[in-house]
Write a structure and sequence with these properties.
heterodimer, A: 284 residues, alpha/beta, Rossmann fold, 5-stranded parallel β-sheet, 10 helices, B: 312 residues, 2 domains, 7-stranded mixed β-sheet, 14 strands, 39% helix, globular
């Protein structure tokens, strides 16, 4: 699926509305880190980047996407629903008893989930294994995208995987960092600063691309440049705003893992209404 | 004494056989490839043996990713690191995602010997058995280890295979006859059921010889498949003998003894005497040689003999 920039902006806006609505209905969930990743995920799924077939989730030639920061499940669920993996109406079942939309992604329940995530720090390792396995099977065209949070980079396993990716020259591996500067306990730099993160990834052997993670053309260009880099792993460091698009959530640590009230939901949706006149793939 | 061979010696060799038979098998190890013997797979195809360095968490994640490309993947390292250090990776990535990853570390139990308590893993069966979707096999000798690896490779989904460092007596003449969920009755008797796994099976057979001279006929069972447990075979034996001694080179908390205790608690009335659990009694290991350690921890044939005599 491919949309132009204006249409993508509309889709992103629609995804934000989905995220706010489904977390409000669920009564719990993680709006901040879902909203910060909207443009990154929207461009992957609807910007002619990720190759996939919603009617054939196990299509052997698909690219792979892993949401390592599994708590941002709502942004993945709205992307999958809008891509056609399942009906949009199912988004309202998020986190409910009997739902396929578990609090964190569960591959055994929902089509389109490559691997279950939720315990932070493991996605890059899994992506490494996928990238190695695809290459070993001579499936050189297929790429593995993995979205990590900035706080998640505090997990030691991420750096074990980073060593591996560079050592094995995994040119089909594309890591995306949603760098929104906040984690549950506060500002990332106050809790456990990452220092020169671009320098760290560079030192580990990654090609680093730094972008504004809400700038759709920049994101698309980063994905194009990343795809062209085939001799080693790429890290796209996307600078984002947690809670992006909802004024009272933006850059507020309190909105990491809290559901809006009905009134807050209405306020958020009114802000998100008409913030883009682009194409919306579904009815809200 | 019969010839000896370590269960770990079965690992790389069986992987090579599986590859030759057309299984798309990979081994991921963490700088212990020679010790675990996984390095042997590299003899046939270097790309199928992946050394992640001293990075066990990444070992499990890489194995998970490989399995998602349709491959049958074994992970190595020592049992203490290959299960304990990576418990969350096994739980949340391998089992929760129901992946075709076989957790197959070596150097389990106190039979590791001189390396001491830091390296003697006696909680691994407990950890792995508690995980939904995980199947747990504990082979008693070299050929049963080959069988366990083969069963794990041929059965989709997560497995734990427990292997050891020490050379232990060859018990079986063939790797045939082993099944997931099947125990094997190795000696018939009507006075007591000794239900064992791993090297304790051999020691239980030695104890049974000694017991026979004392007029006690012990039935010796190799449990082999700890999860799922062969409830039918075990209950049939206990119905005959009315007395049970379990024996394992593992903590008495959460291992074979606990599984048998649960089974017997669900089937009241058939056990006539107190259940005796031989195993590591809530302790860490210490440095020493095999015989010294098995005596110290009450795991040797004499300890099994004494326990049965006291029970009788």
């Amino acid at each position: 699926m491919s949309y132009d920039e204006k249409e993508l902006a509309g889709i992103a806006n629609h995804m934000r509305r989905d995220i706010v609505k489904m977390i409000t209905l669920a009564g719990s969930g993680h709006p901040g880190g879902s909203l910060s990743a909207v443009e990154l995920v929207a461009t992957l799924f609807f910007g002619d980047v990720l190759r996939y077939r919603p009617d054939q989730p196990d299509w052997p030639l698909r690219d792979r996407f892993i949401l390592s920061k599994g708590h941002a499940a709502p942004v993945l669920y709205t992307a999958l629903a809008n891509a056609g993996y399942f009906n949009i109406s199912e988004l309202s079942t998020l986190r409910k008893f009997g739902s396929r939309l578990q609090g964190h992604p569960d591959r055994e329940r929902l089509p389109g989930i490559e691997v279950s995530t939720g315990s932070l720090g493991q996605g890059l390792s899994i992506a490494c294994g996928l990238a190695y396995g695809l290459r070993a099977s001579n499936q050189h065209e297929q790429k593995v995208y993995v979205l990590l949070g900035d706080g998640e980079l505090q997990e030691g396993q991420v750096w074990e995987a980073a060593l591996f990716a560079a050592h094995q020259r995994l040119g089909n591996l594309k890591a995306i960092i949603d760098y929104n500067n906040l984690q549950i306990d506060g500002r990332l730099e106050a809790v456990m600063g990452l220092g020169d993160i671009a320098g760290k990834f560079t030192a580990f052997g990654f090609k680093v691309i730094e972008i504004d993670g809400h700038d759709l053309p920049a994101i698309k260009q980063a994905y194009v440049d990343a795809a062209a880099c085939q001799d080693g792993p790429v890290a796209i460091i996307a600078h984002t705003v947690k809670g992006k698009g909802v004024s009272f959530m933006e850059d507020q640590v309190g909105w990491h893992g809290k559901a809006p009230s009905d009134a807050q939901c209405d306020e958020a949706l009114s802000e998100l209404k008409g913030s883009s006149d682009g194409k919306e793939p579904t009815d809200g | 004494m019969a010839d000896k061979k370590a269960t770990r010696a079965a690992y790389g060799e069986t992987l090579l056989e599986l590859l030759a038979e057309g299984v798309d098998v990979y081994a991921v190890d963490a700088d212990l490839s020679a010790s675990t013997t996984s390095i042997r797979l590299a003899e046939a195809d270097p790309k199928r043996h992946i050394n992640v360095g001293i990075a066990e968490q990444n070992m499990i994640g890489v194995a998970a990713g490989l399995s998602l490309t349709g491959k049958t993947v074994f992970t190595g390292s020592f049992a203490v690191f290959g299960t304990g250090r990576v418990y969350d990776q096994i739980r949340n990535t391998v089992c929760y995602s129901n992946l075709n990853v076989k957790i197959a570390p070596t150097h389990a139990g106190i039979s590791v010997g001189p390396d001491g308590g830091s390296h003697q893993m006696v909680e691994d069966i407990a950890l792995m058995s508690a995980l939904p979707r995980m199947r747990v096999l504990v082979p008693a000798d070299y050929l049963s280890a080959k069988a366990a690896i083969r069963i794990a490779a041929m059965t989709p989904g997560p497995f734990y295979i427990r292997m050891g460092r020490a050379n232990v007596p060859l018990l079986y003449e063939s790797e045939k006859g082993f099944e997931l969920g099947k125990a094997r009755v190795l000696r018939s008797g009507c006075d007591v059921s000794i239900i064992a796994c791993g090297v304790e099976v051999t020691l239980a057979l030695q104890a049974a010889d000694m017991l026979a001279e004392a007029g006690i006929q012990a039935e010796v069972i190799d449990a082999f498949s700890i999860k799922p447990l062969d409830e039918k075979t075990l209950l049939a034996s206990v119905q005959k003998t009315g007395a049970v001694v379990t024996a394992e080179e593992h903590s008495v908390i959460g291992g074979l003894g606990s599984a048998v205790a649960s089974l017997l608690a669900k089937n009241p009335g058939i056990l006539a005497k107190p259940l005796c659990q031989i195993g590591v009694q809530d302790r860490f290991g210490i440095s020493g040689e095999f015989d010294e350690l098995f005596k110290e921890y009450g795991l040797d044939a004499q300890s099994i003999y004494d326990t049965v005599v006291q029970l009788s």
